[in-house]
Amino acid sequence: MMVRPKHQRLVLVILAIFAVLGAVLLAMWGLKDRAAYFYTPADVVAGKADPGKAMRLGGMVQKGSVERDPDGITTRFTIEDGDARVSVVFKGIVPDLFREGSGVVAEGRLEGRTFVADNILAKHDERYIPPQLGNQAAEHAVGKTVRR
Amino acid sequence: MTAEAGLAALWLAAALSLLGLVLSVLHYRGTLDADRSVRAVAIVHGALCLFAFAMLLVVFARTDLSVALVAENSHSAKPFIYKVAGAWGNHEGSMLLWVTVLGLSGAALAAFSRQLTSRTLVAALGAQAALALGFHGFLLFASNPFARLNPAAPEGRGLNPLLQDPGLAFHPPTLYLGYVGLSVAFSLAVGAMLTGQVDRILARAMRPWVLGAWIFLTLGITAGSYWAYYELGWGGWWFWDPVENASLMPWLAATALLHSVSVLAARNGLKAWTMMLAVIAFSMSMVGTFLVRSGILTSVHSFAVDPTRGAFLLLLLGIYVTAAFVLFAVRAGSLREGAPFEIVSREAGIVANNLILTVILGIVFIGTLYPLMVEAVAGEKLSVGAPYFNAVAGPLAIILGVLLTVGPLLSWRHESRPVLRKLRIPVFIAAIALAIAFFALPQASILSKLGLALAAGLLPAALIPLLRRNPFRAPLATWGMAIAHAGAAVAIAGMAADSAMTIERLTAAKPGERVEVGPWLVEFVGVTPAAGPNWTAIEAELRATRGGGVHVMKPQTRFFTDPPTETNEAAIDTVLCGQLYTVIGRPDEDGRWQLRLWWKPMVTLIWLGGALIALGGLFAFAGHARRAWRRRAMA
Question: Can you tell me the distance from the alpha carbon of B395 to that of A26, in angstroms, rounded to the nearest whole number?
């Protein structure tokens, strides 16, 4: 089947429009339940985070809260943010810069009142500052806290 | 004086790019025959950029602490090689490198282009000068690398050991050659749309730039992936981090452009299409530069508080992209029709390739920018990671791979032979691989099973174009295509195998204990202190056995004092294509140490595939260069 040249251009334009629309629709479908929202312990205590849904929890590692289970690889600690606290359980090797009293972002989900982390992000190097931690520092630096 | 000389060269270069722009406009309007002067200006401009960059290297090599940039990013006690590499390991220096590559690309275009008409070439050089002018403005007004510090600092502040890594030193220049090499494709497209001369000659002039840029991008992405894999100690090879996506997006666009520019060169088809892709490809380079260099990734808020740099880059991006799109909208209709083709033909296959790559690009683009948009507009923070990208882009990549088995076998314009018959053997192999995957790897995801089957079929299919005739008589470009497509098969095999077959073991062990991971038996011998030039470490000794010999592996936790940091050094042992990957964690009160072990069969295929893809590009580049040279010698 030979498409006439005039029509051929039209077909190509239509295909390109469909490709762009398709990308947008696919992306929206994908983002609907795969974007992980960032919450602070205060948000969690206030019940803003849905249990079981992938999310990030960020704040400070409470001093004196880090404990290791007898299996040697499960770490339990508390992430705090002013007055609110959320206990976290994580199975794995915590990153190099994970310290009591310093900033942390945990990826995972809420199960009951405990946050089960799949991954712990701590400030690693210039390249791997978790964006949300950067925000807190920047907000602090300009002397205003952005609150919704 | 050195810094002042560099700054003076930069101002002069900015002035020359303005001059080049004005001259090329006059030439385009026919007021003035400025062909030779525009070329000369472009060449001198490139030389001045190079001079300014050389001056920056000198102040870094000497650790001239009266230059603010050196005082902030270097240290007199750094090893010499990292002093020099430190010149581009910071914002200002890397932007100067970016502009230098831009200037040198323009100079090379001016010096070596013979085939293009004078009008198109001068218009393209004018577009290149306009790009350079904007980024010179950015350097001089928002990111001056040569600013002095008075009084000079007593000592530099930059001795961050994490940044002293050969991978990190040579990774940015490789990527920049790719990013900025695409600027020439952009300028040639703008020039050709202005003069209406979108033809095979233009495609032949554009192709080496696209190929070259694409080779560097491929190498840069592959090397960056391996660096993240061994340095971060997380066992992963791609994190869908915005910085990684910033380099992936131009690569996707360049891959599409590379294929469509071949249609234009061989068949004089897909004219407007190719121009559009050339504009998109460099736009993606600028988007990537904006993402990495504006600071927006660290924080939308800090971006909003100190927007000088980010807003400047965004303004440049907006001006150039808008101007190119408007030009395209005005001119695309008046371009001559390309050569027609049928629905089953090589051209149609390449259109399908372009469409799928564009959709993947759109998905990555939206996923990368969505969190920034949401935070800027609604103030909500969210992150988009692997679950989104793998689920949405993964199946498309598989479809693209399936089309890749057929596309190269189709003839131009019109295919009447039953092509699918040639694919009997690859399809048979893929079916067997799929059956084995379902049988032997029941727990693996569907996507990774399909990936393994696809790779098994694609590898033989990619080599078919070489078999039609004596393989050693086949053109170099055909070899290049076959190698690159086989490389894609190899990389897909590695990615699918990493997801399907990796065995992970996380445990706490006392010295003397043995741990099993896949086919390996790993004995934890104990820990000893170790030391290097600027670090101390705790080093574990592991003795891994699998049947015969013993592999001794020594993962470390390193401690640096200045500034105080701690890093995990994974120990990786390669056996055939698989890797045993070991990380040591922390001790507990009972004298146990955390150990994390992975056995990753076939994982090295990921980077081997990437290298093969780049090698294929190199073959194609050499093949086209040889043909162009012969054509010129005959003329």
Answer: 11
Whole-angstrom distance, CA of residue B185 vs CA of residue B284: 13
**Predicted structure pTM score:** 0.91
Q: How many CA atoms lie within 13 A of A41 on its CB side?
A: 20
Contact B388 A31 (CB under 8 A): yes
DSSP, collapsed to helix, strand or coil, labels residue B163 as helix
CA distance A39 to chain B (A): 8
Cα–Cα distance, B367 to B384 (Å, whole number): 6
Q: Which residues contact B604 (CB under 8 A, 6 or more apart)?
A: B494, B574, B577, B578, B579
* Cβ within 8 Å of residue B412, ≥6 positions away: B266, B267, B341, B345, B346, B347
Lookup: tokens for B136: 């010179």
Partners of A69 on chain B (C-beta within 8 Å) are none
Nearest residue of A to residue B337 by CA position? A5
Q: Do B343 and A3 touch (CB under 8 A)?
A: yes
Chain A nearest C-alpha distance from B286 (Å) = 19
Q: In this complex, do A24 and B366 lie within 8 Å of one another by their Cβ atoms?
A: yes
CA distance B298 to chain A (A): 5
CB pairs under 8 A, 24+ apart, for B322-329? B324/B186, B324/B189, B324/B190, B324/B279, B324/B283, B325/B279, B327/B190, B327/B193, B327/B194, B328/B193, B328/B272, B328/B275, B328/B276, B328/B279
Q: How far apart are CA B583 and CA B581, in angstroms?
A: 7
Contact A34 B381 (CB under 8 A): no
- Residue B113 pLDDT more than 90? no
Q: Which residues contact B119 (CB under 8 A, 6 or more apart)?
A: B27, B28, B195, B197
Contact criterion met (CB < 8 Å) for B342 and A1: yes
C-beta separation of B613 from B487 below 8 A: yes
Rounded Cα distance between B128 and B133, Å, is 9
Cα B141–Cα B142–Cα B146 angle in degrees, nearest 5? 80
ipTM of the predicted assembly exceeds 0.85: no
- Shortest distance between the Cα of B6 and any Cα of chain A, in A, equals 27
Report the sign of the C-alpha dihedral through residues B435, B391, A126, B63, in that order.
positive
Amino acid of residue B44: V
**How far apart (Å, rounded) are the C-alpha atoms in residues B354 and B255?**
8
If contacts are CB pairs under 8 Å, which of residues 26-65 in chain A contact chain B? Answer: 26-31, 34-38, 54, 56
The verdict on a CB contact (< 8 Å) between B382 and A36 is yes
Cβ-contact A12, A19 below 8 angstroms: no
Beta bridge partners of residue A105, listed in sequence order: A58, A121
Which of A86-100, B4-18, B154-168 is the most confident on average? B4-18
> How far is the C-alpha of B235 from the C-alpha of B599, rounded, in Å?
10
- Residue B150 exposure: Cα atoms within 13 Å on the Cβ side: 3
Tell me the pLDDT tens digit for each residue of B514-573: 999 988 899 999 899 988 877 888 899 999 998 778 889 999 988 877 667 777 888 998
| Alpha carbons B483 and B502: distance in angstroms, whole number | 27
Instruction: Report yes or no: B355 at the A interface, CB cutoff 8 Å.
Output: yes
Shortest CA distance from A31: residue in chain B = B388
Nearest chain A alpha carbon to B558: A96
CA distances from residue B357 to A16, B251, B365, B397, B474 in whole angstroms, order as listed: 11, 10, 12, 8, 28
The answer to whether A12 contacts chain B (CB < 8 Å) is yes
Structural tokens at position B356:
């799928």
